[in-house]
Predict the structure.
Amino acid sequence: MKNENSYLVSGLLNQQFLLPDLLDEIPVGIAILDVNGKIKIVNHTWQTITGAEPGSITGLKCMLGLRCDYCFKGCPIMSGKTDFDAIATDADIIDRSRIKIPIRLTISPLFSNDKKLSGFVETIQDIRQVAELSSSASKAYSLGGLVGTSPQMVKVFSMIPSIAGTDSSVLITGETGTGKDVLAEALHNASDRAGSPFIKVNCGALPETLLESELFGHVKGAFTGAHENRPGRIKLAHNGSFFLTEIGDLPLALQVKLLSFLDDKEIYPLGSSKGFKANVRIIVATHRDLKQMVLDKTFRADLLFRLNVVHLHLPPLRERGEDILLLKNHFLKEYCTKFNKKIRGFTKKAAKILLGYHFPGNVRELRNVVEYAVNFCDRDCIGAEHLPAYLTEQDILRPVIESAKVSSELPPQKEYSPAESWDHAEKRMIIEALIKNGGRKADAAKSLGWSRSTFWRKMNKHAING
């Protein structure tokens, strides 16, 4: 555990203060490294960008903590250099969610009064928004990863700039897979808070006991296993945006606490009576009918009123007309680049199948279908035989609801060729399971009879992005 007294700063102001407290107020990721390139301390923004757990990276080589491609492209610290001018460069890191994030990286050596090397200071900034604006994908029909020309989507695009300019709470609704997370991040990136953290928490992914600590933090000794103070996600989002997805899964007890925060903008970590004023914009999303949940007394009416200041609704893909054609070509280009394949497009039959399908998993399902097809296409055009079997083995014009009712009666899974390697067959099984379950990994794992950890491990093995 770090000795906080070693981080005391004296002589700068009238009173002593801790260096980490100063660093945490700076909206740029900062890491202080020793002369061997090992991490001494990092601030909250650095943790937010990398996704690293507090205290988990202290003493590690910078390369292991930051996980940056620049480490292998001439980083002077990695090369053991001690005499170099400050460096500023663009690079990519892989965060703890295995997402590639473009950053602006600076590295400077620190010298003592007698000109001896004392260590290094490293700063990082998330430049996803800048990278996106400069990419060819940033066109009139694309905003923050959302793509579409249908009137419903154009209406959403037109509302984003004005909504981003305020700090009002935003409620995003829409079916699973319509892009609610992408829209929330687009709102953040279009706002004045873009340079500050965007923190996301899935209310349905954590048990109630952990969720409270995750949101509001805790102090050492607050409960069994609380070995050190830990800031909650809301505090980490200070000066930025806090996105609660699946807000309909938030337990009633925490709904009260969230409502209190929305009123006072002050959070109290578990076990502490000392509050923290957090300047955070709240964005929430759900696929549930919150009004019906209020009637069912499973969601607080006052919280709904407080959250529903601005309401954005994303339409299901089946109501977006020819956005399907636009999106399939968009994903085709993306995966051809990723997998280094040269595929010109889709055959008429394949395009007709995609247009006729109802996509209950919405954009996420279409994305998975295109990824599957690009994986298994061995020609320059994707044909019907390259699409997942379930698209062609059932009546694609069957209404979604009916399809869901009879899902248990679907034909047995396609048998795999003996000539096909097990690795190839396993990858196909995983992708098909993901597509059939609308991208829901837990359900996909269950359908294959695997545990979630096994499923994750195999996805990583085959480099499948869910």
